[in-house]
Amino acid sequence: MTAMAEELSLRERKKRETRQRISDAAMGLFMRHGFDKVTVAEVARAADVSVNTVFNYFKTKEELFLDRRDTAEEFLAELVRNRAPGVSAVRAIRDDFLDAVRTRHWRYGFNPGADWWHQMVADSPALTAAVTRLHEARQEKLAAALADEADADPDDLTPRLVAAQICATLIVLTEQAHRRRRAGEAWEDILADTEKKAERAFDLLEHGIGDYPERVR
Amino acid sequence: MTAMAEELSLRERKKRETRQRISDAAMGLFMRHGFDKVTVAEVARAADVSVNTVFNYFKTKEELFLDRRDTAEEFLAELVRNRAPGVSAVRAIRDDFLDAVRTRHWRYGFNPGADWWHQMVADSPALTAAVTRLHEARQEKLAAALADEADADPDDLTPRLVAAQICATLIVLTEQAHRRRRAGEAWEDILADTEKKAERAFDLLEHGIGDYPERVR
DNA sequence: CCACAATTTTTCAGTGACTACAAATTTGGT
DNA sequence: ACCAAATTTGTAGTCACTGAAAAATTGTGG
To answer: What pLDDT sits at residue A3?
Structure first.
């Protein structure tokens, strides 16, 4: 037993290498030809493994694409749990979102390289569905975190409702940005505008949609 | 030309018959064995047509299940367009929803027979994804209607945000009801409670989620 | 270093949704 | 009855994904 706790067995190392090789091969092909145009068999050949080995590491073809999921599920929940004392959940997320827009950070998909990723997702119904499931998972974790923080009854719908509305707002904001990007608008212009739009969106979230569209707000 | 305008040609009648026969056969099998356990080939055999004919009428297997889609896409949009003068969009939908809960109407899935339908959707990831797409379509139509009513700029996000929040609320409310149903609770109990929960949910929607969970509301 | 167990990979042989296309059938009109 | 158009069917295939047994690889104890 020469291996220390941190060292990995040969087996474990090989497994990671294989997984990485498959993921890399897949990403390369996806970037060149698009998700739907690449077959799992082609990925397998490029990674020099059998098709079954691919499915051994990735349950579905979509998982190959979402392997390095920029969409950490726990992300929003953590944000709420770690917020400064006296700060509301919406405020914490609001501030974080605006900061991400201003710094073009990837955590909400506002980095320059995120373009082709969203383009690819938009082009594939299968991927879109998979991403939607990720969003749902993210929303559920947020709801759980909110329920904890408010220490609400299990049958209190409020945390679920709040989580749903926060996530809905975030999705509308990011979707809008990427829709405009796909339409050819300049990233910088979009982001500058998104910053203003986000302020408005979070105000709406905090203060309610009231009697829209009866009264001009 | 003996046919009057209202009469359908033999061809048209046969097509409708065939479509109906396929849909009926599919539903019968789905109800007996579950969506995932039934193959399109079995549906075709039960309807006494070829597999290709099934796909001639229904683009996907999911469409077979959603044929009589209780989820009319224009529904919420129409509600907003036809609301009484002086009534806000949220109010119109709130009143309609509460009415539906009280009268156990199917339009939000609150009829006694809706149980197995939601059970079946919950059991099949493919169906869940398809229903999610329907919800998205419904949300977009609502957003369009709201944009019209408010006569907003095309780049004003407000109608989209309002639509997203309304739909998110409706989904949380209905999901909750059906989750409890699947857990075995009595339909009547759930509905009575949903009525109260809905009031709370729409208040939140109208007045904002504020600084939840800092302050007990 | 060898035998043996555990794990991983491959091979083989499916299933099932869905597609393209040509041939066969049915219907509409004359 | 005949022709053209629409509908249905058969044939053959692609692709994601599954199951199970054989084959290769790695860990382990002697």
So the answer is: 36
Write down the mean pLDDT value for chain B.
91
Select from B37, B60, B39, B58 the least CA-distant residue to B124: B37
Q: How far separated are the first and last CA of chain B, in Å rounded?
A: 71
Same domain, yes or no, for A48 and A126?
no
A14 beta carbon to strand D: under 7 Å: yes
Q: Please report which confidence band the pLDDT of residue A211 belongs to, taking 50, 70 and 90 as the band edges.
A: low
Q: Do A210 and B91 touch (CB under 8 A)?
A: no
Distance to chain B for A4, nearest Cα, Å: 43
Q: Which residue has the tokens 């209780």?
A: B70
pTM of full prediction above 0.85: yes
Q: Residue B156 belongs to a domain with what CATH number? A: 1.10.357.10
**Domain hosting residue B53, numbered range:** 10-65
Distance from CA of B165 to the nearest CA of A (A): 5
pLDDT average, residue stretch B94-110: 93
Residue B86 binned pLDDT confidence (cut-offs 50, 70, 90): confident
CB A176 within 8 A of CB B160: yes
Contact at CB, B161 and A209, closer than 8 angstroms = yes
